[in-house]
Design goal:
- By secondary structure, this protein is α/β, with parallel strands linked by helices.
- The chain contains 17 helices and 20 strands.
- The strands form 4 sheets. It has a 9-stranded mixed β-sheet, sandwiched between helices. Strands 17-16-15-18-19-20 form a 6-stranded parallel β-sheet, with helices on both faces. Strands 10-12-11 form a 3-stranded antiparallel β-sheet.
- Strand 16, helix 11 and strand 17 form a beta-alpha-beta unit.
- The longest helix is centred in the N-terminal third of the chain and has 18 residues.
- The two termini are about 15 Å apart.
């Protein structure tokens, strides 16, 4: 198949979140499975020629290569993309984001014709690329070049929808008949993600459970109705994990390497982590790790409510991340109260993150909702047992054989799950088996790519 990946951010060129990781890793896995893939993204200020070996194709189009021969095409526009950040500045979202990404979507379709890449599938990601299926079925519907192209939309987090005032609708160059509740209109505004949901041939999310959750009022963010109408074409495929980066056998950041078949080195990584974090170097005390954005979505509301009770249990806790100021302040105060129990690092630190995944006994991830989640996938690979709330991708990857799950989003349930983990930790033989089960889990991108190829075939048959 000939596949186009369209995303507003792609590793290694530009990244603000997990979208970039997926958009960079999936094409490489597709290439390994014999698919002909290209990527099209905006050319941001940070994408420098010297760093990425970029060549010129047209005055406004440049390209680079990843993998063996995957072309990454950059759409250039000084006015729209030559900025320090991708979507926002210190005042919030860029006011012309609708113009910027509508331009990207139109130029992407024009570019395919210019380079004569007659795609079988255009795979678009999130609201920034969601107008591509719309233009394909409206503006370009009579052009024979685009006639048989099918589209797949991946929703990474339905909370981000691309909402704009009704007054900006004419900028899209679409007929006003499309601005109604069955198509682009959403409570009097333009909704680009909704547009993609309506016009794409097939829709998917980044885990099977999340694909069901977003059809409910609790998790649908107002789009549950339109998703229910399209549920026949809505699927969930779990994100993969890049094991070339996250692998305890080869990880250069950790003190001692180890493997799923020989986890002995892990105890030395725990000792190393305790030393770095100024915690007592005790092997018999369970060490909990958190690498996260400090936000309510990530479970910090119930964690904050439970933190005193947690710190009075026989455990240690290392937290790495940044986020909402209220959690910064609360956790800073807690550290003063329990300096031998909790170690707090309010920053981004890739090296320390690796050490936390390798050196912790238990990885705490009580997210309120989690479309896929990477933290639990990484911790499993490192034999660090995840403790999670049953939601989204966490529900699809963690079970009683490799972790701990609580099913009601309450502080009492979180505390109970932690106590269960502490009790289990005392049985060293059973704990060793749990670690082996975790470390043997396989969430590689090869498996995810196979799922996407099946999804592309569904779209082609539609």
């Amino acid at each position: 198949m000939k596949i186009v990946i369209c995303a507003s951010e792609v590793v290694p060129f530009a990244k603000t979140g997990g979208l970039a990781d997926v958009a960079g890793a999936l094409p490489l896995a597709l290439e390994e499975q014999g698919q002909g893939t290209i990527i099209i993204m905006p050319r941001y200020k940070a994408i420098q020629e010297a760093k990425f070996k970029i060549s010129r194709l047209r005055p406004d189009i440049s390209y680079s290569t990843i993998g063996r021969s995957i072309k990454v095409y950059f759409i250039e526009n000084e006015k729209y993309f030559n900025r320090d950040n991708l979507y926002t500045d210190k005042n919030g979202d860029y006011p012309d984001n609708l113009d910027r990404f509508a331009y990207y979507c139109r130029r992407t379709l024009e570019l395919l014709k210019e380079i004569n890449f007659k795609a079988d599938i255009i795979h678009v990601h999130d609201w920034q690329a969601a107008l591509i299926p719309v233009y394909l079925k409206t503006t370009y519907t009579d052009d024979p070049f685009y006639k048989s192209i099918k589209t797949v939309l991946t929703i990474h987090n339905i909370g981000y929808q691309g909402l704009f005032p009704k007054e900006e609708f004419p900028k899209l160059g679409l007929d006003w008949s499309l601005f109604d509740m069955e198509k682009l209109e959403f409570f009097g505004k333009v909704n680009l993600l909704k547009a993609g949901i309506v016009f794409s041939d097939v829709i998917n999310t980044v885990s099977p459970t999340y694909s069901k959750e977003i059809q409910t009022k609790e998790f649908g963010f107002g789009l549950e109705g339109i998703l229910a109408k399209r549920k026949k074409y809505l699927f969930g495929i779990l994100n993969g994990l890049d094991y070339s980066i996250w692998n305890p056998e080869t990880d250069k950041f950790i003190a001692v390497n180890f493997s799923a078949t020989d986890l002995n080195g892990k105890s030395k990584d725990k000792k190393d982590l305790q030393k770095i974090c100024n915690l007592p170097a005790k092997s018999d005390i369970p060490l909990f790790g958190i690498v996260s954005r400090l936000a309510e979505q990530k479970g910090f509301d119930i964690l904050a409510q439970a933190i005193d009770a947690i710190c009075n249990l026989n455990l240690q806790l290392v937290i790495l991340g940044t986020g909402d100021l209220k959690y910064h302040l609360l956790l800073t105060d807690i550290v003063k109260k329990y300096p031998k129990v909790i170690s707090l690092h309010l920053k981004f630190d890739d090296c320390l993150a690796h050490k936390i995944y390798a050196g912790s006994d238990i990885f705490l991830m009580p997210s309120k909702y989690e479309p896929c989640g990477l933290g639990q996938l990484i911790s499993l690979k490192y034999g660090t047992i995840p403790l999670v709330f049953k939601t989204g991708g966490l529900a699809d990857t963690v079970n009683k054989d490799n972790g701990f799950i609580f099913q009601q989003y309450k502080k009492e349930e979180l505390i109970k799950a932690i106590k269960d983990a502490l009790q289990a930790f005392k049985d060293r033989k059973q704990w060793g088996k749990l670690m082996q089960n975790a470390a043997r889990c396989n969430f590689s991108w090869d498996e995810s790519a196979k799922g996407y190829i099946q999804l592309y075939e569904k779209a082609r048959q539609k």
